[in-house]
Amino acid sequence: xxxxxxxxxxxxxxxxxxxxxxxxxxxxxxxxxxxxxxxxxxxxxxxxxxxxxxxxxxxxxxxxxxxxxxxxxxxxxxxxxxxxxxxxxxxxxxxxxxxxxxxxxxxxxxxxxxxxxxxxxxxxxxxxxxxxxxxxxxxxxxxxxxxxxxxxxxxxxxxxxxxxxxxxxxxxxxxxxxxxxxxxxxxxxxxxxxxxxxxxxxxxxxxxxxxxxxxxxxxxxxxxxxxxxxxxxxxxxxxxxxxxxxxxxxxxxxxxxxxxxxxxxxxxxxxxxxxxxxxxxxxxxxxxxxxxxxxxxxxxxxxxxxxxxxxxxxxxxxxxxxxxxxxxxxxxxxxxxxxxxx
Length: 342
Prior knowledge:
By secondary structure, the protein is an alpha/beta fold.
């Protein structure tokens, strides 16, 4: 019999291990098992609403508390949720077994379903039992993705980026991967959803561009942008495409927005930032983002020339201003509504 107290014991143990910089993937299946069992024994699932765009459609369901029909979870997509724990465990084992650290990638095409199912099962349990404690959801997602990124890359993981000469000042973020000297440091903010808060990712990258020109790349890792509208019995995707494009143009460049459930409003080239699935990060993009930073090119004034260009001519004796990097190392076609729909 699944037990909520047992789930939180496992969650707290995972946190203690993660904060001690041990990234043990074996700690996630027991948590997933408890979540699947809790939902099976205490909740029903039912269709709630569909989202349509450009001839494509996504179906969203919710979990409903057996004892209180007004207590429902956030919306989830049955097309992405693996039905049973046994099936999830088999897919998880295949995914973890496919990790190739040398090539910085994972193999199976169903990475997104494995990660979406682990995250959404946990989120649904918290929604139904601890609605005021949703911070746990974002924390669990961070631990899940951080542990996998370390397993795939072999890189060191940190969580803060100290700013020199600022006392205790730092750029707070969720995951920073450090491949070592002469390579990009990779910054991954992790969110269950962003909505209008998406600008924070660009602002943090702007600070890094100013303090450490050409040393950091950023990409947002997210589940979805869905919002449940109880009064209207609807699900909507709350997106700010114009704000994303303005931030990319005027604030800073980030490499991509990664989603487990990509929103319709951010695809088909509607924004200037590449939109990708999280599975693409683990299977192909991580290797491209972490490639070598420098090519042993040094400006006559002593500045390194890498992904950033000095805005003043060589040999100039004035203060040099650096232009932040533009363009992404990720080479792929933009996903479309057809790729995202059911």
